[in-house]
Amino acid sequence: MEYTAEPVAVVGAGAIGMAIGAALYRAGHPITVCGGTPVSAFEVTEGGRTESIPVTHTTEPAEIKEHRLVVLAVKAHQTPAVGEWLRAAADPDTAVLVAQNGIEHHERVESYLGASSVVPAGVYINSERPQPGVVVIHTVDVPADLVIPDDAAALRFRERLVAGGLKVRADPDFVTVAWQKLLTNLVTNPITALTQRRIEVFRDAAVAEFAVRLLEEGAEVARAAGAVIAPGHARATVTWLQGFPDGATTSMLRDRLAGLPLEHDAITGAVLRAASRHGIAVPAVESVHALVGALN
User: Fold this and answer.
1) How far, in Å, are 72, 97, 251 from residue 157 at the CA level?
2) Contact predicate 167/147, CB 8 Å
3) What is the pLDDT of residue 3?
4) Considering the domain 8-170 in this protein, what is its CATH number?
5) Cα–Cα distance, 162 to 223 (Å, whole number)
6) Residue spans per domain, the chain
7) I need a labelling partner for 199 at 20 to 30 A (CA). Which of 5, 105, 244, 246 fits?
8) Distance of CA 154 to the CA centre of its chain
9) Average pLDDT of the residues in 118-129
10) Cβ-contact 147, 121 below 8 angstroms
11) What is the rounded distance in angstroms from the CA atom of residue 260 to the CA atom of residue 19?
12) What CATH number matches the domain at 175-295, 1.10.1740.10, 3.30.2010.10, 1.10.1040.10, 3.40.50.360?
């Protein structure tokens, strides 16, 4: 295809980075992959169809200095390792889509980005990377693939991502959005990692009841932090997870099976920090945080 738009730098070409990068390519943007394993294309499989997305790989942060759109998709705990790339792209005209777990998107990246616009994202794309440059996207029942704030910086990404085939919702109450996503991660990631089973583990009655208890603790903290979490959210979330197709997975399970560090600090750790600020006891969250930490 003929490029008609500015290049996008993808920092973190894992499953989520490739899925978002592929959508931006379809919208007309050349994709620059920053560091990591050298790749010349993303092989994207979804719904039984595979397409090849050409990309440019670079090992030099200076080469993205003029990129004004950046996708940050490394795991939260890997952010310091890519700080040089973020500093290279930092500019008042740069917008950075932070496609990471947790509720601390701004705090995590602001020291690298200066006056750049930070666009936090709640990511609901269920995908996995079986090998570098290859991503398999699983079809799951979600109202949106990405949820972002309703502001001018986020709009720069929304139009392009929608044009590239993703479902994107802009929400003025991103505090609630971020906490809703964190609550989902609070159960899906640790429980799949600890049991080494995919999301169908929530069809086990005992696991489902424990997940409800974990979510109820998290929801209490979320409400104290200003998020609007409806009564019955915990039970409804577990019921929703029970309907996921066989094979749906989580990033933390993939990392455990690969022997990689686990992203628990941005998930259970974030809930514990918020609970401490608001003086709320969360014994189930504390236990899960300790167990996942021991896996590391």
Assistant:
1) 13, 8, 23
2) no
3) 39
4) 3.40.50.720
5) 31
6) 8-170, 175-295
7) 105
8) 16
9) 93
10) yes
11) 21
12) 1.10.1040.10
